[in-house]
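Board notes, transcribed. Complex of a protein with adenosine-5'-diphosphate.
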Amino acid sequence: MDGAARGLIDAFQERFPDSACAGVWRAPGRVNLIGEHTDYNLGFVLPVALDMACYVARGPAAGGRLNVHSRNMNDARSWPVSALPTLQPSKDWSDYVAGVAVQLVKAGYPVEPSNLFIHSAVPFGGGLSSSASLEVSVALALLGDRVMDRVELAKLARRAENEFAGMPCGIMDQYISVFGQEDSALKIDCRSLEFEVVRLPAGIEIVAVNTMVKHELGGTAYRERVAECAAAAEAIRRRHPEVASLRDANLDQLELIDGVPRQRARHIITENRRVEDFVAASARGDLAAMGALFVASHRSLQHDYEVSCEELDFLVETATAIPGVYGSRMTGGGFGGCTVNLLEPGTSARFQEAMAKAYRDRFAIEPRFYPCKPSHGARRIA
Ligand code: ADP
Ligand code: MG
């Protein structure tokens, strides 16, 4: 048993002294290397599961209730399990947990009266997907010894976020949290829900840099982008009925779309292409090409998709001027959160020092750095 599991069990027993801990489950956060906002357009993404994860300890509860304590939030919730089928969202962190419980019941997996103790090492709202790691770890903890198909598990966690937390996200975050592999990225086809293991070249380090800001706009803009992409696909479909989503569209068809949705579609079409090109560049060990694709992806997100912000743009500008940096781009939904950077090994300390100084001078904020070690997907750890 690892140290994290031991710590969780102790914390669980302290919080729920009358309940015997039945197990600890872990689900990782992720950093997406390339393929941003393509998942809900049924395209390609290339994420890596992180060694930062959400941990959930579970034990049986008395009184027919589901009791939940989040150490990060220092807050607790409790629902009668009999009320789960008709539960309504409460517009706070507990929706991610309740949403999973509700979806399990709907899928025919009754939720046993339980105590859950939650602790996460994934930063919140940083674009590293603390939400999906919470959903997946809670789903596994509530399933216990019952097995569920792993793709169904990812889909269920996504439905919790879509239907209960109210975010129309794609499948990427939950899928990589379930399926992540050590030392590898996964190229996920968000339509077929199949993946290809992508081994990254030896000569790179991945470092995420947190702007430490999350602009309010984020949630609203995300919903807007989902709607704009649907409108763009609809406009193409009038002429080309085979275009079920922007995944199927090509650049020649852009002229069929008017206004802003045309710009959004251009990002999606070129970004799907960049995922393919990045995988090819990685296979031939072409670090310069990989870096250039990172920057091209950022420009497209900045100008066509318009989901970047001043802080993210500044971090990308600063990073790309530092020797030993192959490329830099925003990662995750945008409007704050993290950039992901490809570095020459051995340059990380110098990179962090230069980035922190520049960011501090410009915004008076201390950025955070996360070296990203590709790690395994969700599982029981105790
Ligand atoms: P991201 O997934 O990029 O971190 P989101 O806005 O999608 O950002 O999800 C962050 C939210 O998920 C938090 O604000 C909180 O409501 C919830 N959350 C994540 N981890 C935990 C946790 N360990 N305990 C309670 N809530 C959590
Ligand atoms: Mg999230």
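The radius of gyration is 21 Å. The longest strand covers residues 47-60.
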